[in-house]
Specification:
Length: 294
Protein backbone atom coordinates (compact mmCIF):
# COMPACT_ATOMS: atom_id res chain seq x y z
CA UNK A 1 0.00 0.00 0.00
CA UNK A 2 1.37 3.44 -0.87
CA UNK A 3 1.85 5.81 2.05
CA UNK A 4 -0.87 8.47 2.31
CA UNK A 5 -0.30 11.99 3.73
CA UNK A 6 -1.42 12.23 7.38
CA UNK A 7 -4.33 14.60 6.69
CA UNK A 8 -6.72 13.91 3.82
CA UNK A 9 -9.56 16.15 2.65
CA UNK A 10 -12.16 15.17 0.05
CA UNK A 11 -14.45 17.70 -1.63
CA UNK A 12 -17.42 16.72 -3.78
CA UNK A 13 -18.74 19.32 -6.21
CA UNK A 14 -21.25 19.46 -9.07
CA UNK A 15 -19.46 21.46 -11.79
CA UNK A 16 -15.99 22.86 -12.51
CA UNK A 17 -15.87 26.32 -10.79
CA UNK A 18 -17.96 25.39 -7.72
CA UNK A 19 -14.83 24.22 -5.87
CA UNK A 20 -12.94 27.48 -6.42
CA UNK A 21 -15.89 29.73 -5.51
CA UNK A 22 -16.83 27.76 -2.38
CA UNK A 23 -13.58 26.29 -1.12
CA UNK A 24 -10.68 27.81 -3.08
CA UNK A 25 -8.93 29.26 -0.02
CA UNK A 26 -9.51 26.13 2.06
CA UNK A 27 -8.13 23.90 -0.69
CA UNK A 28 -5.07 26.13 -1.20
CA UNK A 29 -4.40 26.24 2.53
CA UNK A 30 -4.50 22.49 3.07
CA UNK A 31 -2.55 21.75 -0.10
CA UNK A 32 0.14 24.24 1.04
CA UNK A 33 0.24 22.51 4.42
CA UNK A 34 0.95 19.16 2.81
CA UNK A 35 -2.47 17.59 3.29
CA UNK A 36 -3.88 15.42 0.56
CA UNK A 37 -6.64 17.43 -1.12
CA UNK A 38 -8.86 15.41 -3.43
CA UNK A 39 -11.55 17.03 -5.54
CA UNK A 40 -14.30 14.97 -7.16
CA UNK A 41 -16.39 16.91 -9.68
CA UNK A 42 -19.60 15.15 -10.71
CA UNK A 43 -20.13 16.67 -14.18
CA UNK A 44 -18.14 18.69 -16.72
CA UNK A 45 -20.65 21.55 -16.58
CA UNK A 46 -21.74 21.13 -20.21
CA UNK A 47 -24.89 23.22 -19.73
CA UNK A 48 -23.20 26.32 -18.34
CA UNK A 49 -23.62 29.70 -19.98
CA UNK A 50 -20.53 31.02 -21.73
CA UNK A 51 -19.48 34.56 -20.78
CA UNK A 52 -16.70 35.45 -23.30
CA UNK A 53 -18.26 36.11 -26.74
CA UNK A 54 -15.17 34.59 -28.41
CA UNK A 55 -16.01 31.22 -26.82
CA UNK A 56 -19.79 31.34 -27.39
CA UNK A 57 -19.42 28.68 -30.10
CA UNK A 58 -18.72 26.07 -27.38
CA UNK A 59 -22.27 26.36 -25.99
CA UNK A 60 -24.53 23.30 -25.77
CA UNK A 61 -26.92 24.68 -28.40
CA UNK A 62 -24.02 25.25 -30.82
CA UNK A 63 -20.94 22.97 -30.90
CA UNK A 64 -21.66 21.44 -27.48
CA UNK A 65 -17.97 21.39 -26.59
CA UNK A 66 -18.15 23.34 -23.34
CA UNK A 67 -17.57 20.21 -21.23
CA UNK A 68 -14.17 19.48 -22.78
CA UNK A 69 -13.20 23.13 -22.45
CA UNK A 70 -14.16 23.23 -18.77
CA UNK A 71 -12.00 20.17 -18.05
CA UNK A 72 -9.08 22.37 -19.07
CA UNK A 73 -10.31 25.31 -17.00
CA UNK A 74 -10.57 23.07 -13.95
CA UNK A 75 -7.03 21.75 -14.45
CA UNK A 76 -5.74 25.34 -14.67
CA UNK A 77 -7.65 26.30 -11.52
CA UNK A 78 -6.25 23.34 -9.60
CA UNK A 79 -2.76 24.39 -10.61
CA UNK A 80 -3.42 27.79 -9.03
CA UNK A 81 -4.59 26.12 -5.80
CA UNK A 82 -1.73 23.60 -5.72
CA UNK A 83 -4.17 20.68 -5.89
CA UNK A 84 -2.90 17.72 -7.90
CA UNK A 85 -5.61 15.14 -7.21
CA UNK A 86 -8.76 16.13 -9.08
CA UNK A 87 -11.08 13.66 -10.69
CA UNK A 88 -14.47 13.44 -12.35
CA UNK A 89 -17.02 11.08 -10.84
CA UNK A 90 -16.80 7.91 -12.94
CA UNK A 91 -14.37 9.70 -15.31
CA UNK A 92 -14.88 12.88 -17.39
CA UNK A 93 -18.25 12.87 -19.14
CA UNK A 94 -19.72 9.87 -17.28
CA UNK A 95 -22.49 12.09 -15.92
CA UNK A 96 -23.78 15.11 -17.79
CA UNK A 97 -24.72 18.52 -16.41
CA UNK A 98 -28.52 18.51 -15.87
CA UNK A 99 -29.14 22.22 -16.48
CA UNK A 100 -31.29 24.38 -14.22
CA UNK A 101 -34.22 22.86 -12.30
CA UNK A 102 -37.14 22.08 -14.61
CA UNK A 103 -35.10 22.27 -17.84
CA UNK A 104 -35.64 19.42 -20.33
CA UNK A 105 -31.95 18.53 -19.86
CA UNK A 106 -32.86 17.26 -16.35
CA UNK A 107 -34.25 14.12 -17.89
CA UNK A 108 -31.73 13.56 -20.65
CA UNK A 109 -30.09 10.13 -20.77
CA UNK A 110 -26.89 10.28 -18.70
CA UNK A 111 -27.85 13.52 -16.92
CA UNK A 112 -26.57 13.47 -13.35
CA UNK A 113 -30.02 14.39 -11.97
CA UNK A 114 -31.70 11.49 -13.76
CA UNK A 115 -29.14 8.98 -12.47
CA UNK A 116 -30.09 6.80 -9.52
CA UNK A 117 -28.08 7.81 -6.43
CA UNK A 118 -27.12 4.18 -5.86
CA UNK A 119 -25.77 3.92 -9.41
CA UNK A 120 -23.53 6.97 -8.99
CA UNK A 121 -22.41 6.46 -5.36
CA UNK A 122 -20.15 3.41 -5.97
CA UNK A 123 -17.80 5.54 -8.09
CA UNK A 124 -17.31 7.78 -5.08
CA UNK A 125 -17.06 4.83 -2.67
CA UNK A 126 -14.05 3.67 -4.65
CA UNK A 127 -12.40 7.11 -4.27
CA UNK A 128 -13.21 7.25 -0.53
CA UNK A 129 -11.79 3.79 0.09
CA UNK A 130 -8.56 4.54 -1.75
CA UNK A 131 -7.96 8.13 -0.50
CA UNK A 132 -9.35 7.37 3.01
CA UNK A 133 -10.21 11.00 3.86
CA UNK A 134 -10.83 12.04 7.47
CA UNK A 135 -12.86 15.04 6.24
CA UNK A 136 -15.53 15.35 3.54
CA UNK A 137 -16.93 18.66 2.30
CA UNK A 138 -20.06 18.91 0.17
CA UNK A 139 -23.35 20.83 -0.10
CA UNK A 140 -26.43 20.82 2.11
CA UNK A 141 -29.56 18.84 1.03
CA UNK A 142 -30.75 21.78 -1.10
CA UNK A 143 -27.41 21.83 -2.87
CA UNK A 144 -26.92 25.33 -1.45
CA UNK A 145 -29.34 26.89 -3.93
CA UNK A 146 -31.51 24.23 -5.53
CA UNK A 147 -29.55 23.37 -8.68
CA UNK A 148 -30.34 19.73 -9.51
CA UNK A 149 -26.67 18.73 -9.93
CA UNK A 150 -25.80 20.31 -6.58
CA UNK A 151 -28.66 18.48 -4.85
CA UNK A 152 -27.57 15.24 -6.49
CA UNK A 153 -23.91 15.83 -5.54
CA UNK A 154 -25.06 16.17 -1.92
CA UNK A 155 -27.07 12.96 -2.12
CA UNK A 156 -24.31 10.97 -3.78
CA UNK A 157 -21.66 12.26 -1.36
CA UNK A 158 -23.73 11.45 1.73
CA UNK A 159 -24.73 8.02 0.39
CA UNK A 160 -21.17 7.15 -0.64
CA UNK A 161 -19.84 8.14 2.80
CA UNK A 162 -22.32 5.70 4.34
CA UNK A 163 -21.64 2.88 1.86
CA UNK A 164 -17.85 3.28 2.07
CA UNK A 165 -18.01 2.45 5.77
CA UNK A 166 -20.21 -0.63 5.34
CA UNK A 167 -18.03 -3.73 5.63
CA UNK A 168 -20.36 -5.81 3.46
CA UNK A 169 -20.63 -3.32 0.59
CA UNK A 170 -18.69 -4.06 -2.62
CA UNK A 171 -15.32 -5.23 -1.24
CA UNK A 172 -14.06 -5.06 -4.84
CA UNK A 173 -14.06 -1.24 -4.33
CA UNK A 174 -11.54 -1.40 -1.45
CA UNK A 175 -11.47 -1.84 2.32
CA UNK A 176 -14.20 -0.12 4.34
CA UNK A 177 -13.47 3.42 5.50
CA UNK A 178 -15.34 5.63 7.94
CA UNK A 179 -15.01 9.38 7.29
CA UNK A 180 -14.54 11.06 10.67
CA UNK A 181 -16.11 14.45 9.84
CA UNK A 182 -18.54 15.68 7.21
CA UNK A 183 -19.14 19.37 6.53
CA UNK A 184 -21.60 21.28 4.38
CA UNK A 185 -20.61 24.54 2.69
CA UNK A 186 -22.14 27.56 4.40
CA UNK A 187 -22.01 31.36 4.40
CA UNK A 188 -23.23 33.19 7.53
CA UNK A 189 -25.93 35.69 6.59
CA UNK A 190 -24.16 38.61 8.31
CA UNK A 191 -20.95 37.88 6.36
CA UNK A 192 -22.88 37.80 3.07
CA UNK A 193 -24.67 41.06 3.94
CA UNK A 194 -21.39 42.75 4.86
CA UNK A 195 -19.79 41.53 1.60
CA UNK A 196 -22.61 42.97 -0.53
CA UNK A 197 -22.47 46.28 1.37
CA UNK A 198 -18.73 46.47 0.55
CA UNK A 199 -19.46 45.67 -3.08
CA UNK A 200 -22.18 48.34 -3.37
CA UNK A 201 -19.82 50.89 -1.82
CA UNK A 202 -17.02 49.94 -4.22
CA UNK A 203 -19.30 50.17 -7.26
CA UNK A 204 -17.22 47.57 -9.10
CA UNK A 205 -20.23 46.02 -10.83
CA UNK A 206 -23.19 48.06 -12.11
CA UNK A 207 -25.63 45.41 -10.88
CA UNK A 208 -25.22 43.69 -7.57
CA UNK A 209 -26.69 40.43 -6.30
CA UNK A 210 -28.07 39.83 -2.83
CA UNK A 211 -27.28 37.34 -0.07
CA UNK A 212 -30.06 35.15 -1.48
CA UNK A 213 -27.97 34.67 -4.66
CA UNK A 214 -25.20 33.08 -2.61
CA UNK A 215 -25.42 29.31 -2.17
CA UNK A 216 -25.48 28.05 1.40
CA UNK A 217 -26.37 31.31 3.16
CA UNK A 218 -27.78 30.52 6.60
CA UNK A 219 -28.32 32.04 10.00
CA UNK A 220 -24.92 32.60 11.61
CA UNK A 221 -25.78 30.23 14.46
CA UNK A 222 -25.67 27.20 12.11
CA UNK A 223 -22.05 27.81 11.13
CA UNK A 224 -19.60 25.70 13.14
CA UNK A 225 -16.26 26.19 11.37
CA UNK A 226 -14.43 29.00 9.61
CA UNK A 227 -11.23 28.75 7.63
CA UNK A 228 -9.28 31.98 7.40
CA UNK A 229 -8.01 32.10 3.83
CA UNK A 230 -6.33 35.51 4.01
CA UNK A 231 -2.98 34.02 3.05
CA UNK A 232 -4.52 32.20 0.08
CA UNK A 233 -7.12 34.60 -1.32
CA UNK A 234 -4.88 35.53 -4.27
CA UNK A 235 -4.74 31.85 -5.23
CA UNK A 236 -8.51 31.59 -4.84
CA UNK A 237 -9.06 34.58 -7.12
CA UNK A 238 -6.61 33.16 -9.68
CA UNK A 239 -8.41 29.80 -9.61
CA UNK A 240 -11.76 31.53 -10.13
CA UNK A 241 -10.25 33.50 -13.03
CA UNK A 242 -9.15 30.21 -14.61
CA UNK A 243 -12.84 29.35 -15.02
CA UNK A 244 -13.04 32.08 -17.64
CA UNK A 245 -16.16 30.80 -19.42
CA UNK A 246 -18.10 31.06 -16.14
CA UNK A 247 -16.62 33.80 -13.97
CA UNK A 248 -15.46 37.39 -14.29
CA UNK A 249 -13.18 38.46 -11.43
CA UNK A 250 -12.70 42.14 -10.58
CA UNK A 251 -10.50 42.73 -7.54
CA UNK A 252 -12.19 41.19 -4.52
CA UNK A 253 -15.48 40.71 -6.35
CA UNK A 254 -16.80 38.48 -9.13
CA UNK A 255 -19.80 37.87 -11.34
CA UNK A 256 -21.28 34.80 -13.02
CA UNK A 257 -23.11 34.84 -16.37
CA UNK A 258 -26.01 36.81 -14.80
CA UNK A 259 -23.54 39.73 -14.43
CA UNK A 260 -24.60 40.36 -10.84
CA UNK A 261 -21.63 41.28 -8.67
CA UNK A 262 -20.83 39.12 -5.65
CA UNK A 263 -18.09 39.29 -3.01
CA UNK A 264 -15.24 36.75 -3.02
CA UNK A 265 -15.17 35.40 0.52
CA UNK A 266 -11.70 35.35 2.04
CA UNK A 267 -12.88 33.31 5.00
CA UNK A 268 -14.80 30.14 4.09
CA UNK A 269 -17.48 28.70 6.35
CA UNK A 270 -18.81 25.25 7.15
CA UNK A 271 -21.37 23.36 9.17
CA UNK A 272 -20.23 20.12 10.80
CA UNK A 273 -22.98 17.53 10.27
CA UNK A 274 -21.22 14.24 11.15
CA UNK A 275 -18.49 13.68 13.72
CA UNK A 276 -17.27 15.60 16.74
CA UNK A 277 -16.26 19.25 16.80
CA UNK A 278 -12.65 19.81 17.79
CA UNK A 279 -13.46 23.27 19.21
CA UNK A 280 -14.53 24.14 22.76
CA UNK A 281 -18.33 24.18 23.20
CA UNK A 282 -19.91 27.23 21.60
CA UNK A 283 -16.84 28.15 19.56
CA UNK A 284 -16.24 27.70 15.84
CA UNK A 285 -13.51 25.35 14.67
CA UNK A 286 -10.74 27.00 12.68
CA UNK A 287 -9.32 23.73 11.31
CA UNK A 288 -11.47 21.10 9.57
CA UNK A 289 -9.14 18.41 10.95
CA UNK A 290 -9.49 19.62 14.57
CA UNK A 291 -9.85 16.63 16.87
CA UNK A 292 -9.07 14.11 14.16
CA UNK A 293 -6.48 11.48 15.05
CA UNK A 294 -4.03 11.14 12.18
ZN1 LIG B 1 -22.42 24.34 -9.98
Amino acid sequence: MTELPARRLLLVHAHPDDESINNGATMARYAAEGAQVTLVTCTRGEEGEVIPPALAHLAPDREDRLGEHRVGELAAAMKELGVTDHRFLGGPGRFRDSGMMGAPQNRREGAFWSTDVDDAAPYLVEVIRSVRPQVLVTYDPDGGYGHPDHIQAHRVAMRAAELAAEPAFRRDLGNPHQIAKIYWNRVPRTVAEEGFARLRAAGTFPAVGSPDDVPGVVDDSLVTAEIDGTAHVERKAAAMRAHATQIVVEGEFFALSNHLGQPIFTTEFYQLVRGESGAPAGERECDLFAGVAS
